[in-house]
Design a protein that fits this description.
Length: about 260
Amino acid sequence: MDTVTADDLCADAARALAHADNVLVLTGAGISAESGIPTFREAQTGLWAQFSPQDLATPAAFARNPERVWGWYRWRRTLIGRGGVNPGHRALAAIEARRPISIVTQNVDGLHAAAGSTDITELHGNIWIERCTGCAAESSQPVAPADNDASLPCCPACGAMTRPAVVWFGEMLPTVALERAQELLAAANCVLVVGTSNQVYPAAALVEQAVQGPATVIEINPEETAVSRSVDMHIAATASRALPGILAHWPHDAAALARR
Ligand SMILES: [Zn+2]
């Protein structure tokens, strides 16, 4: 019988995270699902089971019907604003208060920053940022329930229509974010993978690279994923249980180590 409990694993993970020189945290939709934010790929409940990406998340869809696309993004903003940060987001921010960590996320919801994390690289953009389709100027909206205004948002600088600064199907990921993710991965000796299905490239490739490299890789996911059997430690629990669990086991000698 397997006597290693999730609690034991959280204690091991806390030690690995506290003692590593460089920690990279890769997060996906799973950490935000517990804020009531629907994920994209679940067969029954995921957004793409109910909506068509071709109608809502491509440059062509936006050109064809910007009102419809903006309506959908406003609805998603409302869900995010209502759900807010959960114990998983908060625990990562609390870990950052104990030691530096870098977060690379596939999520566009802005909830890591809302929880207080500071070193965040967003691979797929941010739903609270609007980018002008004319001059490319970006402006940031507060993480809050969206208003009911159905008009199309316009750039304060040039008056052209703005779009959500997220990566749509058929678009490239932001080069700066991808390069920073690669740099962080190369420097990391401990990689924490939280709530990602490891199916969506290139984020999945980052995880595969981490597994093949020398870093200690810890996965938090209630489900078994493509890499669960290859990682050093798989904690089969949700982020909002496992991350506070890791925090609860944070080693007492960690502060002394950090001062060395
Ligand atoms: Zn503009």
